[in-house]
Amino acid sequence: MSTDRVVISGAGWVTPLGSDIDGVWQRLLAGEGSIGAIEHFDASTFATRFASQVRDFQLEDFLGERAGRHARSSRATRMALAAANRAWTSAGLGPLEAPEGESQRSPHVDPRRFGMYLGSGEGRMDLDNFARTCVESWSDEDRRLDYEHWAEAAAQYLDVVAELEQEPSMCLAHMAAEFGCRGPVSNCMTACAAGTQAVGEAFEIIRRGDADVMLAGGAHSMIHPLGMTGFIRLTALSTRNDEPETASRPFDATREGFVMGEGAGIVVVESLEHALNRGVTPLAEIVGFGSGADAYRITDIQPEGLGGAAAMSRALEQAGIDPSATDESGRPLVHWVNAHGTGTKENDAIETMAVKHVFGELASKVPFSSVKSVLGHLIQAAGAVELITCVQAIQTGIIPATMNLNTPDPKCDLDHVANEPRDCRAVGGVDVCLSNSFGFGGQNNSICIKRFSA
Amino acid sequence: MPTECVITGIGCVSAVGVGIGPTWEALCSGSSGLRAISAFDASAFPCSVGGEVFEGDTLLSARNYVPKSYRKATKVMARDTQLAVAAAALAVRDAGLVTRESQQDPAEFTYAPEELGCHIGAGLIAAEADEIASAFVTAKDDAGRFSLREWGEHGIGNLQPLWMLKYLPNMLACHVTIIHGAEGPSNTITCSEASGLMSVGESRRIIERGAAKACLSGGIESKVNAMGISRMGLCNRFAEIDSGDPEPWRAIRPYDVEAPGGVPGEGGGIIVLEDAAHANKRGARVYAELAGFGSAHAQMRTLGIATEFDCGMGAPVEEDEGLTDAIQVALRDAGISPDQVDAIIPAASGVRLMDTAELGALERVFGDRLSEIPLAVLTPYVGQLFAGSGAFGLAVGAMMISEQRLPARIHAGRPDGRVLAGASESVGADLRYVVVCTGSLAGQAAAAVLRRPDLE
Known about the structure:
The complex is a heterodimer of chains A (454) and B (456).
Chain A: E1 6-14, H1 21-30, E2 35-37, E3 50-52, H2 60-63, H3 75-90, E4 114-120, H4 127-136, E5 138-139, E6 144-145, H5 147-157, H6 160-164, H7 170-179, E7 185-187, H8 194-207, E8 213-221, H9 225-233, E9 262-271, H10 272-277, E10 284-293, H11 306-319, E11 336-338, H12 345-359, E12 367-369, H13 372-375, H14 382-396, E13 398-399, E14 415-416, E15 422-423, E16 432-438, E17 443-450
Parallel strand pairs in A: 4-7, 4-8, 11-12, 11-16, 12-14
Antiparallel strand pairs in A: 1-9, 1-10, 2-3, 5-6, 8-9, 10-17, 13-15, 16-17
Chain B: E1 5-14, E2 17-18, H1 20-29, E3 35-36, E4 49-50, E5 54-55, E6 58-59, H2 79-95, E7 116-121, H3 129-136, H4 148-155, H5 163-167, H6 171-180, E8 186-187, H7 195-208, E9 214-222, H8 226-234, E10 266-275, H9 276-281, E11 288-297, H10 321-334, E12 343-345, H11 352-366, H12 379-382, H13 389-403, E13 405-406, E14 427-428, E15 433-438, E16 444-451
Parallel strand pairs in B: 7-8, 7-9, 12-15
Antiparallel strand pairs in B: 1-2, 1-10, 1-11, 3-4, 5-6, 9-10, 11-16, 13-14, 15-16
Helix pairs in contact in B: 2-6, 7-13, 10-11
């Protein structure tokens, strides 16, 4: 038995479509998104007034009484805790029943060999108090802040918990404490690429032998005033306020921006040996991870898609999969490319070029779709949640569709799974998926998973 | 034969200097860089001194560290990014690497773009208060209060379009990859003080598996801004020091039971970590080998936080068990025992809760011998560098091994007798193995073992 094989042995998510794996999957296949008017705050005067929100989420439903200690944790942290709870259970790591004040402890894992790698985002800025501090200490005369006043106002208004919860290490801290991870821990913030990167690096940590089991994934919510502000100012968001439910339209000629989402996705990454020793059947095997940088421009993607192509190529190379090869039936070896597919003009056209760069003449035969058309863009959580859709595609043999793809953009001419899911069971199911996540600023990641077979 | 990783370039920026040369000189002569904060009027803050990065009489600007064509981009760089851009350029030049910074033709680069990785740890970058406040005040309601409705209607448009891009933590690495043409694996780790060391650990993993031949790696942060100081002030991180204090370093007293706290600093370190075989082939100078790395986490109260504040992480601790584990993993990874360690560079924050937990971990790992192992104590020189701290320690550690010398320790108090941290001159020393380690704000811990490169 090879010791460097690494598998996914459990998965959990909290998404705008719900939080049970099968229910969300069914809604995703049916194209039943929940994109609508922003409820988290009064966005009525914002240029974009809708988002893909997680609704009816109560941490108590997942953690019971233990949820109380996380009452002031960030939304991302609470969603991550819930997703991890489900992932833990689905991986058979044991009952969740640690007494209040103590970590969960799996009877199956040595805590020092149990790690965590998250791509969780920063917490929401405490806008009310921050803005109040700024406004009250502004000097109209000098057109700048009076810091003497500011120091006083900040001390009066700012709250230690609200401030600390913004730190991008806090989600990891809460999560590691809750689940008793004492091995290698890390959190990365590579913008929209973080969720994929976190799982990829966890895979590498286990391959190196530094841990047996890791919880990995991402969590993020930027559906708050300054989060929306930042993207509105960048003109990255769809402004289709009159028809939000069809606003996310990756690869369609009429696309004009992405739809902000929120959520968390956590997978249990485990060495195959460890999983088999405790009698667990893996959900899928991680076979390749590629990371790289565009090194092009802060505001633009490398126009030929070379950065994204490099990430995909590296993942496939590590997986030992030749992108130009087919099986005996003429089917490409990659059965689904889960696109980064945000629905911005620039990303989708360039990602198409990247796919062509990697797959050459076969590119038009590799099924390709973006679940962001239904889920929205979960930013730092996107890669992890979408990886779980890849796991589901392998488990069920069905590829989810890019919805709202009614007027295909000629610049995005690939084998789109458009508007209807593609049932691959008749041709042998879905064995290999490649999942892309490309970050603002040019950090690109791609991960390749495969149907598990001993 | 496993791949060895060596440090061939050091770029550090802090209050004691820009580049390893001036930094080392200051550390050996015992001159602290802490003084009254100049970036803004901090006189009304409880702590109004800090460690800022100067070049001559002015705060360092990234403009001197980018090609002419990239100068415009420095306008969308937050302070943290400017510091990272400078540190990366210094590291590259120090290592004698040819990158896109100095050469247009990729064929002339020391390493092909895809062979050069970049891992720069970062913190939560605070929005520049003046910048966002100037927009907030255009969104007031009739009562003069900030109004979300007004914000959506008028305020947002008063921010520069790229406003958010300035503050994403991955911008440190992204600008550096662009400037140097580094298309290899890239990441941005955000684990507070442990970010820098973790980034270096990740770079090593990547070089080991052949995914890059060299990496620009480290961590940088600046908390010398109104929001950073307010935020960390709420966490009881800082001593109360008046801007008129002529010797603010005297208040920074790591491991002293009467230590009043730390001060905000800025900067950190970026190193060139290189596959030893390739470094040797190009005849690079090797400061030190990165022989071991470990990271861990322990359930514990968030370090350095007000005692009444409980993040749901249990009681204050006598030992940061995460740090204990991280150091032990790193030593095992390096294949050495604690007895072989010749010097330690800990966080030594001067914040009592943190010092106590750190000391507990060091004592657990090194036992009675701890009181004989010299420490390099950097906070009285540069303040707290947060995401930059571990990487700054690593830069100094590499220089210590290269120079076979301990920097001077400046300490105006009485450190705990269990640890060798009191004032001392810089002295020559036989340094074969140096441990650099840190716990962090939220409980992550990391440790690295540096090794003298000529050891068999």
